[in-house]
Amino acid sequence: MIFGLTGGIGSGKSTVSQYLVRKCGFFAIDADVLTREVHGDAAVCEALVAAFGDEVAPQRVGLGRCVDRSALGRVAFGSAEGVAQLNRIMHPALEARLCEALERASTGDWAHGVVDAALLYEAGWARFVDRVVAVVAPPQMRIERVALRDGLPREQIAKRMASQIGVGEMCRRADDIIYNVGGMDALERQISAWCAKIAVRMRARA
């Protein structure tokens, strides 16, 4: 089975994804990794510069440009229209990379797979997975985690959170929910319990 793993910035979904790979034999496709790859695409980079200005790609690498992700985030997440414009440029290229990654993974010997994507619903990627797991945490906890991890100002973090689907809507649409509100031990217990439920479902199908 292929599971969609989603959650707002700072929710801890990447921690869940890493655990599934390390402990449960899953393969993982990380939307952040795909994003970095797409930022290296010359056509995408030039489209971002045309939309948001030279500030988002000030450096040149060879004959092309290098996207400054921090600058792009500051400019694009400054307004709803900026977010929409960013998504119009990025989503088609990201989806193409996702399909390629799923095709490559289909030839491997994996227990299951997970697509780790904060914008799983916004990008329309739920149609590529069998079930969706949402990882959720309180807003203030998420802000503190991201501020510590990335060093971003809290107002920028709040803007990024506001650009994503609300937690209530995410939980309503998800098939399973993992609550990341405690320490690592508590989170790992939840993941293990979820994996056990998946194993029971798979045995019932057999």
Low-confidence stretches: none
Q: Please tally the β strands and state the result.
A: 7
Sheet bearing the most strands, described? Answer: 5 strands, parallel
Fraction in helix: 55-70%
Order of helices and strands: EHEHHEEHHEEHHHEH
What is the C-alpha radius of gyration, as a whole number of Å?
A: 18 Å
Brief summary of the model shown:
By secondary structure, the chain is α/β, with parallel strands linked by helices.
Record the SSE blueprint:
Layout: E1 2-6, H1 13-24, E2 27-30, H2 31-39, H3 42-52, E3 59-61, E4 64-66, H4 69-76, H5 80-105, E5 113-116, E6 131-136, H6 139-150, H7 154-162, H8 167-173, E7 176-179, H9 184-205
Parallel strand pairs: 1-5, 1-6, 2-5, 6-7
Antiparallel strand pairs: 3-4
Helix pairs in contact: 1-9, 2-5, 3-5, 6-7
Explained architecture:
The protein is of the alpha/beta class and 206 residues long. The protein contains nine helices and seven strands. The protein has helices at 13-24, 31-39, 42-52, 69-76, 80-105, 139-150, 154-162, 167-173, 184-205, and strands at 2-6, 27-30, 59-61, 64-66, 113-116, 131-136, 176-179. The strands form two sheets. It has a five-stranded parallel sheet, sandwiched between helices. Strands 3-4 form a two-stranded antiparallel ribbon. Helix 2 (31-39) packs across helix 5. It starts with a strand and ends with a helix. The relative contact order is 0.20.
